[in-house]
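Can anyone check this?
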Amino acid sequence: MTSSRRIAVSCRRRALAVISSALILFPPLATAQETDTPPAAALTEADYAALVARIVDEHVLPTVDRLKARAATLSAALDAACAAPSPATLSTARAAFAETVIALAALEPLRFGPLVEENRYERLAFWPDPRGLGLRQVQALLAAEDEAALAPGALATKSVAVQGLTALEFVLHGTGSEALLAPADAPSATSRDKPATSPPTPATNPATATTSSPPSSYRCRYGAALADNVSALAAAVGTGWRTGSGRLFFEPGPDNPLFLTHQEAAGEIIAGMATALEVLSDQKIKTILAESPERARPKLAPFWRSGQTFPAMTATLQSIAEETQRLGIAANVADDSRWLANAIALELRSATAAVQSLPAESVETAYTDQTFRARLDYIRIAASSLKATIGQELSSSLGLEQGFNSLDGD
């Protein structure tokens, strides 16, 4: 046997060992079986229209509404934390932040339509950031204490890196976050460090004073502005699905810039799930896991500071599971493809169980410990397999062409 063949055989054996060990830990809950249901007729435009309507009404809109509600709660929690800084109000704000991250993660398979218009997705969460460019922008804004950036609507005009949940995570959990517990009238650390030659702050004129902004630390007020911006973006996504570009999914035709047919609109929805699985497999696991524990880069994972990396993965997988249920696969594919419904559901449950077994409290441990690395590698393989099953086999079985992948660019 040649050396190259020995290497190939060895690689295959290692891959099979990873899969086998993971399947022992996370076995499928049942065996996918074909049913005796008569073959479904070929889908018509009316069938595709009904499929799109069901997905939007029963999955997209509730998921978008959940993000809107969580973001509104987050905004109120940051306002409260700034008005009365304390461990309790900070804990409430951090909990609301985590819930909002989870709500956004459920939208990962819906990365199309109003969510991507006007760069809303990147503005909601600027990631990946492999060179830390976004983090440096956030740190620079905090250091400068630019009051103009906190004016209503001002963040929406700035870099996407300084206006969403990834920026807010650093505010709440990053270096210097202890400033959030400072008394409302205490100067910030940056203010205390300014030279004595700095011009004094003009005295407030009682006749013109307002109570719209409490005298909390700049860091906290930046966090509140971030939460307000996230809430506004979430509301815009919801409005877009009800009265904006989301209507394009229901009104295909020659005047529609996106879809000529309901079939094309359905294809976009299926492609969104495949794209989310590719992001999970390649960007959230493979790139960060690297070839060895020594080369792993866990601090590239999204939301690692707040411990939301793996809960967010779970939310994405559960969202895909719910969406595939709404598709009604068994009723809309040919007899010899009905096995896909059970196969997809079982693999999603198995991958979700594997994610939930990871230590959310220590993302670094998960990406560097050999046991957890093996589980992450299983999740990567499962997500990649599901991407092919949904994006190719299911898409083909539903009579759809493989959809455009938003990761590929124009």
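Reply from J.R.: I decoded it. The domain at 38-192+215-250+258-403 is CATH 1.20.1420.20 (A middle domain of Talin 1).
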